[in-house]
Design a protein that fits this description.
The chain has twelve helices and 14 strands. The chain has 368 residues and is α+β, with helices and mostly antiparallel strands. It folds into two domains: 2-65 and 189-365, DD-peptidase/beta-lactamase superfamily (Beta-lactamase, 3-Layer(aba) Sandwich), CATH 3.40.710; 66-174, no CATH class.
Length: 368
């Protein structure tokens, strides 16, 4: 079952190649499972399709949640409530324990806080559903490297450090802050930081597409996980709403005349923080900004920029979620993609699947 949304403007009106877009939808449909695909060009909807699900089905974005946590902190920074180069401990004194007193907010945004898995990967996964335990574990964690020294993907700690900063500085829950400050003003009422009861019937369960993903499937399909506020991996929504959020970023913090962030704030979040060297956690090249993965043609075949397409521009920004989903914007092409799938492939194969989707979107934009 494939559903086409009435919002679509048509590829020719937006300068996209219809034959390549047809290949794209054929590829996604052939994979099976459930998926949503939304492509925007020059602010218009080129594709808004659902495969094996309804247009309002809600997918868990996993790590594609992380930019939201980062942008919440950037929003507080633009209001003068947080200074990016101040230590995290100046807002959260308990974080300073065991040699973390010099870790700055900027280090966290760059995945350079030195605590990539807190007190261990297994414990981190088990406690992710419990905000207070996750925060206490981070306070007790011992850094693997000094703050600012090594770029290493912070799997869960990225979101919980930033989320706790938001909570302490704003005096509001993380869910309330991102919903009322980033989503609701621009009408994105189907992005949920932890699924509410009324939306549970629309959630799409993950499906392991490889034995290595069975544990991930088991953990993330539970109601306790899906409804928890997990600032690194707990955002659920539709591809259309994710795409609209990135359109707002592409337009410098404005959507339909409503400003959510200043343009300079978005630019700060997109600013590169490394040269694309090998990430110490992921063991492959990654270009990080201050909250996003960045694109750009990667020389290494396992470069994570590939998830945005082999020909993505160096200014493209976004994030993948495990290897089942990816959301990005390419400013040079005025292009946005949101692809959400419930299939959980093995990591390497998943990177290839995301690249295939992104490559076809770029090819359709560039004339096939």
């Amino acid at each position: 079952m494939t559903a086409t949304h009435e919002r679509e403007q048509g590829p020719k009106e937006t300068g996209m190649d219809p034959e390549v877009l047809q290949r794209l939808t054929d590829v996604v449909a052939a994979r099976g499972g459930a998926a949503q695909l939304c492509v925007l060009r020059r602010g218009s909807v080129v594709l808004d399709r659902s495969f094996g699900c309804s247009p309002d089905s809600l997918f868990l974005a996993y790590a594609a949640t992380k930019p939201i946590a980062a942008l919440a902190v950037h929003a507080l920074a633009e209001r003068g409530r947080i200074a990016l180069d101040r230590p995290v401990a100046s807002y959260w004194p308990e974080f300073a324990q065991h040699g973390k007193e010099a870790v700055t907010v900027r280090h966290v945004l760059q995945h350079r806080a030195g605590v990539p898995v807190g007190r261990g990967m297994v414990r981190t996964m088990r406690t992710a559903r419990d905000w207070e335990r996750s925060v206490r574990d981070l306070e007790q964690s011992r850094p693997k490297w000094p703050g600012g020294e090594v770029a290493a993907y912070h799997f869960m700690s990225f979101g919980f450090i930033l989320g706790e900063l938001v909570r302490r500085v704003s005096g509001r829950s993380f869910r309330d802050f991102v919903t009322s400050e980033l989503f609701t003003p621009i009408g994105l009422n189907d992005l949920h930081m932890g699924l509410p009861d009324h939306a549970w019937s629309r959630h799409v369960p993950a499906k392991a597409d490889h034995p290595s993903e069975l544990i991930n499937q088991w953990m993330s399909n539970g109601r306790r996980y899906r409804q928890a506020v997990i600032p690194s991996a707990g955002l659920s929504g539709t591809a259309a709403q994710f795409a609209s959020f990135y359109q707002m970023l592409l337009e410098g913090g404005v959507l339909d005349g409503v400003r959510v962030l200043r343009q300079e704030t978005v630019e700060e979040a997109r600013k590169p923080s490394n040269d694309g060297g090998t990430d110490a956690s992921l063991k492959r090249p990654v270009r990080w900004s201050h909250g996003f993965m960045l694109g750009g043609p990667g020389e290494h075949p396992q470069d994570l920029a590939q998830v945005m397409g082999g020909a993505s521009s160096a200014t493209a920004f976004g994030h993948c979620g495990t290897t089942s989903s990816v959301v990005w914007a390419d400013p040079e092409r005025d292009l946005v993609l949101a692809y959400l799938s419930n299939l959980q492939p093995e990591f390497g194969a998943g990177i290839g699947r995301l690249r295939e989707v992104s490559d076809l979107v770029l090819a359709a934009c560039d004339g096939g």
